[in-house]
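> run fold ATP-binding cassette domain-containing protein
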Amino acid sequence: MENPIVKVEHLYHRYTTQWAIEDISFEIDGSGVVGLLGSNGAGKSTTMNIICGVLKQTQGKVFINGIDTLKHPVAARKYIGFLPQKPPLYPDLTVDEYLRFCAEIHWMDRKKIKTAIGEAEERCGITHMKDRLLRNLSGGYQQRVGIAQAILHDPKFVVLDEPTNGLDPNQILEVRQLIRDIAEERTVMLSTHILSEVQATCSTIKMIEHGRVVFSGSVDEFDSYIEPNTLYATFDLPPLPDELMAMPGIRRAESVGSHGVRLTYDGDRDTIKLIIRESVARGWEMTEIKVEKSSMEAVFAKLSGK
Ligand code: ADP
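> ok
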């Protein structure tokens, strides 16, 4: 039987006196994007750094393609591409020079380096930037270079620590698409503290809180822990909750203070448009309406209460 690409067994890590992660176990196999979700300080980077062999665990084992990372670190690393949270870019090198340097530290076959660099650049959409100094690239392009170095040696498993952190909204969409593309033929694991990120990019989710895995399953299963969509609206002459509840698409309505109303709705934009039209038609004088996103804390509270 083939080994899973990653197997983590009872992993523990302690930097000082407190456990940063405790008893983390999981297996990952197949292509697609696995999201490691958790608040800041939950233990995501610690877990990823240990899996990628840049931090030695206090206890527990990691197997990459069946290879014990403590016993055979160099052999295990051949299967892994890693983009740490702070990309290890050298600003005074051009994209080409930097990728050549990365190929050399991966001990790649010299004859294959040029082709591999060309392919990684093309995959990541940076071919036209290959002679530019890294310092002169935008954050989005720097992140693409970071992803290019992670896939350069064609690893089966790619680990990206908060890959969209610090990018602007357009760059985020582009980098997410790139991640989905490279996951077509390999396993990608990315970490994020943003709920919508896992929903947009990942097929399966592992949620870590306080150093422990609190959820592991598909995005669909995870969705059942997310509060239904809520809207918050204010009116100068607010309607009664019952009037709103009578409208299609609205599941719950409650007054908040003297002017606010919080609504649970079906998530359909038409429902929002209907509320706005009704407000005008019936003279409720709406002054504000916004969609409220479910917070990670709310999901965690629900998972903990399971
Ligand atoms: P995340 O990536 O989910 O934000 P981390 O793995 O970075 O979480 O951190 C987990 C815990 O370990 C946090 O409490 C953090 O403060 C602590 N920690 C992380 N790195 C170090 C370090 N080098 N020394 C001491 N404590 C650390």
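The two ends are 35 Å apart (CA to CA).
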